[in-house]
Amino acid sequence: MTSAEHDALMRANQANWDARTPVHLASRFYGLDQDLDPERWFASFEWEDLGELAGRDVLHLQCHLGTETIALARRGARAVGLDFSEASVAAATGIAAKAGADVTYVHANVYDAVEALDGRLFDVVYTGKGALCYLPDLDRWAEVVGRLLRPGGRLYVVEFHPLLNSLGPKPAPGEGPELLLRHDYLSGGGPVRRDATRTYTDGPAVEGATDSYEWMHGMGEIVNALTGAGLTVRRLREGDELPWPRWPQMVRTESGWWRLPEPRIPLLYGLLAGR
């Protein structure tokens, strides 16, 4: 696909996330009408990998409602969240204000982050779960990340494993407990079009822009994009837990997340890279 075609699909995704935002704000899934506990969205290994954040400049790319951004700020970071959805940025700003969190939010496409942030550099760039699948070009993304990091800075990617994306992060209509591959693991097959009338949360149907597009990215593509941009991969973890029960046979763990009793397969990964 051409760059112009990619841009058109990303604009469709932007409209879809604008339309999702009011549904997510009101959902039990995010629970924003209760006491905010943003750390529940973090796997336990993330804080070990991220290390000390107090006094550090931390950028959260594709932050949506900014709940994880607030958790980074509560750890003492000078936190900035960036998202291409204007509705999400407005909602995140309100959530942070209500929580008394000192967070700055910026409305911009991730590919335009360097310009949108006026060339500001960061000690840590963080990108969280369910973000990379909305980016058509990982080489371009990695180049942007490299330009956002100070020398010695770190990128931390915590993402749903490409295997989970191949299995589908939510059940298909009528699907049982089987683990069935429904999408490519590797890139090259073009974007997957989804009718996002219903999102991953509870709540009413999305009104308006319901088309969204996702791109498959295998682990090799992700690592090669980062090394090609001059970053050094320092650690790669694969985890077998999710913050929601994707399959009916999943069991709850001590962390409050969910795991398949068998087979043990990777559902999440954490990748630490440095400049």
UniProtKB/TrEMBL annotation:
One of its GO terms (biological process) is methylation. One of its GO terms (molecular function) is methyltransferase activity. Keywords: Methyltransferase, Transferase. Residues 59-155 form the Methyltransferase type domain. The keyword Methyltransferase applies. This is Class I SAM-dependent methyltransferase.
